[in-house]
Amino acid sequence: MQLTEASFKEVRDAVLKKEISAVEITKHFLTRSEKLNPQLNAYITMNTEALAEAQKIDQRIAQGEAVGPLAGISFGIKDLLCTRGLKTTAGSKILGNFIPPYDSTVVRRLKNAGAIVLGKMNLDEFAMGSSNETSFFGKCHNPWNTNHVPGGSSGGSAAAQASRLVMGTIGTDTGGSIRQPASFCGVVGVKPTYGRISRYGIVAYASSLDQAGPIVSSIEDAALTLEVISGHDENDSTTSQKTVPAFSKNLSRNMKGMKIGLLKEYKTGELHFDITKTFERAIEELKKAGAEIVEVSVPLTEFAVPMYYLIAASEASSNLARYDGVKFGYRADFKDLSSLSLDDFYSQTRGEGFGKEVKRRIMLGTYCLSSGYYDAYYNKACQVRRLLREQYLEVFKTCDAILSPVTTSPAFKIGERSSDALKMYLNDIFTTATNLAGLPGLSVPFGFSEQGLPIGIQLTGAHFEEQKILNVAYALEECAQLTNANGQKRIPDVY
Amino acid sequence: MIDPEAIQNIAKLARLKVTAEEAAELGEQLTKVLAHFQQISQIDTAGVEPLVTPSDIDFYTRPDVAHNPNTTEEILQNAPEKGGNLFKVPPVV
After folding, report:
1. ipTM of this predicted structure
2. Which B residues in the span 63-92 are in contact with A, Cβ-Cβ below 8 Å?
3. Is A370 a catalytic residue?
4. Which of A360, A384, A249 has the alpha carbon at shortest distance from A311?
5. Does A380 touch chain B (CB under 8 A)?
6. Residues in contact with A12: Cβ distance below 8 Å, sequence separation at least 6, in sequence order
7. pLDDT in tens, A283-337
8. What is the pLDDT of residues A332-385, one digit of tens each?
9. Residues A21, A74, A78, A183: which is the catalytic one?
């Protein structure tokens, strides 16, 4: 079995039939990771217990016990999700030595389904970034061209997935952090509806926007992972009690009767030529498959980036107040606590523990929440947010899914945008509105730029309609141009 | 323009030590970013209730039952400094 090509289902079935053991699979991907990671820096921490955990799965199978739908599948977890006994840093110095005493719900569900956690993947510090350049543990590189960024914030997950250091990964998406790196690295990334997946045990950035989701190699694997990690959790009161559909069983490429919306507002003149070309081909393919293409309008998407940054920074400034050097995390090296004021203790610890971008967002958020500015910035953004959501609800009365690019350009070069905060923020023009409205979205790889960098296509659906966007992406996946001149699937050089 | 003094005031509110050099840079960047974000002021939002969570969720409250998933040692293991069963901090009163 070619493990780097096989689907979760194929590998799991082989494990259950004892054709291959969980230990063999784990060894295979650990070896690949050890060999290829130095070029990418996709991992922050490797799980030294992975083989022991795989052994337990094999023992359970040998004893005839039922194991879950992801039995033996190797997973990389964004280092923002707590893993019991395994360091969880959020890419920050301030959590550099944090060992959680519990598993996040997403990780617990993956483990209960038989998945093996191979390690914790690199990310922008506290998920604040679009390029994985703000990680305290160093930049991560795009496996298609290591001079380029993998995207962010889930850059380590996407890079590891593209180069098959693992079979599947988990990312989180607050303003595009699953979809954008998935597009830059040529893999599938799904951000589910807000409330579909528990945020319990995920280091909070902006609580009303954060959602975890899979970054994997195919729509089929994404659907299966979603089934495992979705659903109500009593530890997160914002999770929905809706039944989780059997996403993987319901996958269908039948596009007859599907109405696909194109956003008028996304016809920006700033699109890279290769993005336009790839996007137009996606429209043609969906037409050929029998879908109806309709033009729709969500005028307030034009204001999504300002709304997003005002709200996300405000929530972040509040969420990150917990890092105070008392119960866990970094504490500045104080010689004598007895003569120190509490304010100096906090300020020094936080000043040393947070990186530049995180400080910038805490400052922005504190400013927006401070008296005199609250109404003009935070409150105003939340009011516009309601209007934006209403415009989307109207649009989804007339179409089943919205098709759009993920980004304005393919992966940019390392260092190219990191010096200008505003320029970096404006990267997110196609992805942030989805989070503000709480909608599900995904990126599916569809082609390559002339320079050989992957390009994804974005689909956005109505609340809790993940199945519809998965199905459209499933149809697109079949006609994606991802092969080379010899008809073989293109793979990164490090592969 | 958000001047260095205003930056130091925000930094104080955020309990964040910011050097003079950082304050100058932050002032410049936040001014630029907020000037761009100012564009939302043109949208008419009179009478609109702010939206603070995006989905129609029936907020769930779990039964008020105490669970004890961790031992005291497990909780204390991440503490930067401790004394016995307590977290060590500067004088607070």
Report:
1. 0.96
2. 69-70, 74-75, 77-81, 87-92
3. no
4. A384
5. yes
6. A69, A70, A71, A72, A73, A114
7. 999 999 999 999 999 999 999 999 999 999 999 999 999 999 999 999 999 988 8
8. 999 888 989 999 999 999 999 999 999 999 999 999 999 999 999 999 999 999
9. A78
